Amino acid sequence: MPDDASQLSTIPVKNPRTGEIDYHVTPPTTDEIVKECTSLRAAQVDWANAPLSDRMGIMLKWADAVEANRDAIIKAESKDTGRWRLSSESPDAVIWGIRGWCDRAEGIIENALRVGQSSTMPSIKLTQQLVPYPLLGVISPWNFPLMLSSIDAIPALIAGSAAIIKPSEVTPRFIEPLKESIAAVPELDRVLTYVAGGGQTGQDMINNVDIICFTGSVPTGRKVAEASARNFIPAFLELGGKDPVIVTKSADLERATDAVLRGSVHATGQICFSIERVYVDDSIHDEFVDRLVEKTNKISLNDSDIHKGHVGPLIFEKQAGIIDRQLDDAIAKGAQIRSGGKSQDIRGGKYVPPTVVTDVSHDMTLMRDETFGPVMPVMKFSSIDEAIALANDTEFGLSAAVIAGDENEAMEIGKRINAGGVSLMDTTLTGSILRDAEKTSFNLSGLGGSRMGGASILRFYRKKALMVNPDMPVKLQDLHET
Ligand code: NAD
């Protein structure tokens, strides 16, 4: 999001369906952030000292409060995203996130505490202590406003940290009704704060917290990493992607085209792990493209009625310029648009129809830079080695997919792709691993430990070793240097 907007005393917010500015937020001053962080830090001491079961009980009360405020949260988020169905599910990210972590946290933490006797100095007894970072700062993007603002904060709060969260200034409306749900649980209100603001607020937070979880673009991620390094605090970065899918000659075309269409176009392509590059064996390429185009042509925009159609407006209108420039560059270099095309203005909203592009190559920005829109560039390959080389020819490495004749064939290919999560026989399955498997991004797609699986909650602890010698200490005189 624009740095210039973040400098303003109030930040205007556009409605993506009308293009009208119909909301404003006033970012906190630097002094207000300092004050807020000081207060959260003070309250965190009792929060961390409370038994895990007490913290989980309080978090479960918050889940109930979010449920009670569900309609208001959905309405506010939907205004900012221009979409109904996905926003109507967004409170579940908090409700099920809390319930899911409450089921898993105790076992994961107990496992991490398991030590015993030293193997290098056998008489020494070892105890592991987990000490939560006092204050987590979360900076999140606009594509899934509530979900991405809470995904890291929930395990952190359960671990015993306090949290200050700054969602994107593009989609801040849900903050008000969400704050009401937090205020309904006073014990939580003391250790959890949402603030509305832009880049400057993000920087002020980094200067006042102990650990950062950032989700957003690579350029901003770099700024966050630099500021975190200056403050000597750990930063977990979840960044952009250019996710490939490989479709082999033995793949079922019905499966492959369904999976590619959904993986690229769902949420108007505004998912970090959307499919953005499609590599298809040359023996099935033409039939694959024909079927994909046929299915794509049946997809409708939901411009006139938010409850009807498949493809909503772009949430952040500037994204239309990025997508159009990538398509222009591809066309200038010989690409063919087989369905869809550039962005359209419809009653103030910016819409990009699902777009299939062929005759693409890696010298086009469409195949190199993140698109974040419903565009499917399809490229031929003539051997699996070539397909894997193409999939790995990227500065990103968030996720990928393989659709082959069977699971074993897909697995062998998937193991050779440089990405944190690889969906096999389908696309975009990352949501399935939440608390069950871990993944770390390759290349520019991220930095730091896994947000998924057991490692996620353990990120919020400093690990302390307590070492006991039950015997008499070794005397210096008994240590011979020669
Ligand atoms: P962005 O980088 O523009 O902004 C993200 C957040 O950073 C916003 O809250 C913004 O206010 C804040 N920010 C801006 N400048 C800052 C600064 N100088 N210091 C601190 N904070 C600052 O990203 P976006 O456009 O909101 O989101 C889209 C991007 O997010 C895409 O690249 C997408 O792939 C990525 N994303 C990644 C994941 C993931 O899990 N890997 C998930 C969703 C989105």
Outline the low-pLDDT stretches: 1-6
Molecular shape: globular
Strand count, sense and closure of the main sheet?
7 strands, mixed
CATH class of the largest domain equals Alpha Beta
The helix count comes to: 17
Radius of gyration: 24 Å
Would you kindly provide a written description of the structure presented here, covering whatever features stand out?
With 482 residues, the protein is an alpha/beta fold. It folds into two domains: 4-239 and 441-466, Aldehyde Dehydrogenase, Chain A, domain 1 (3-Layer(aba) Sandwich); 243-433, Aldehyde Dehydrogenase, Chain A, domain 2 (3-Layer(aba) Sandwich), CATH 3.40.309. Helix content is 40%, strand content 19%. It has helices at residues 3-6, 30-49, 52-68, 70-81, 85-113, 145-150, 153-159, 175-183, 186-189, 199-206, 218-231, 253-265, 285-296, 318-332, 384-392, 407-414, 455-458; strands at residues 11-14, 21-25, 125-132, 135-139, 162-166, 192-194, 211-215, 235-238, 243-247, 275-281, 336-339, 344-346, 349-351, 355-358, 375-381, 399-403, 421-424, 446-447, 461-468. The strands form five sheets. The protein has a seven-stranded mixed sheet, sandwiched between helices. It has a six-stranded mixed sheet with strand order 6-5-4-7-8-18, sandwiched between helices. Strands 1-2 form a two-stranded antiparallel ribbon. The longest helix is centred in the first third of the chain and has 29 residues, at 85-113. It is globular. The termini are far apart. The model is unreliable at 1-6 (pLDDT under 50). Nicotinamide-adenine-dinucleotide binds at residues 1, 3, 139-143, 148, 166, 168-169, 198-199, 202-203, 215-217, 220, 223-224, 238-241, 272, 370, 372, 398, 446.
